[in-house]
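Just scan my protein:

——
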Amino acid sequence: MKYSLIIPVYNRPDEVDELLESLTGQTFTDFETVVVEDGSSRPCRDVVEKYAGRLSVKYYDKPNSGPGQTRNYGAERSSGEYLIVLDSDCVLPPGYLQAVDDELRGEPADAFGGPDRAHESFTDVQKAISYAMTSFFTTGGIRGGKKKMDKFYPRSFNMGVRAEVYRRLGGFSKMRFGEDIDFSIRIFKAGCSCRLFPDAWVWHKRRTDMKKFFKQVHNSGIARINLYKKYPESLKLVHLLPMVFTVGACCLLLAALVGWVGSVWIFQMTHRYVYAVEMPGLMQHAAVFHALSWIPLLPLLLFALLICADATVANRSLKIGVQAVGASFVQLTGYGTGFLRAWWQRCVRGKDEFSAFEKNFYK
């Protein structure tokens, strides 16, 4: 068996159905699929059984332990030369595995990963979120784009590893947040070759609303500090940008608020003085001061216009462009606040990874 596709699942039977259906259309067929249920209350066993005659598929059900340990569980029960880890909310184009195989035959690699895209069937919100997570203007292109500010680290929604390397390195760690980047860092540290396969992309649904998206990226910000505590050299300039954006946006908003409140107070005082001494020119000066109080918001407005224009062109939709502005602000501030929260808890207060964040993703 050339490839084993490892799919951890938690309460996503509908998404698993879409993913397995996409696997039946793969042009490269030397693969098995290992679906591992992570203690779901809505299991997907019946969904998997539908594909028993169309795919080489295995199904396992285990107590909840989070995605990292669930991937390890599936890897232990797989037989492929390469393990490909996928999120259950991904859908694969027909040529995905062929693209992977072509890359490996052209130049071997111990580990690899691919980018993600938004499918035409995705909702406008999902497309806006996809833009926010893949745009150079929001993530620096570090999630598989051609333009990037840091080297490519495979992520668990679309990650491949030679089975021998996976087992030698012990697979995913028990980190609560950032276990996939932790694994990628260990792959590099072990001297293994790791590459981006640009044509091995997937359609990735990600989150379905902004509230869930904020929680996801907030946890990613926490993960970055956890990784810094474990690998200090892993923290790069690009990882600081969402935090800088968040702090800067708060300062600009505060400056605008102070200026606006101050201008209103001056306007009221001037208004009284004008009637007292009959000097209407002072009213004009107060109005100018009021207008100037909005200047701190210009950088945020210009950034919003840039995002809107770029996302509109990329998606050929002004509606998605407007929603991408909101998604981008959620992405940057969500990550930034998670980063700051983890920095305070772990670097200032000195708490460990688990006591700092008692509320877990899972159970």
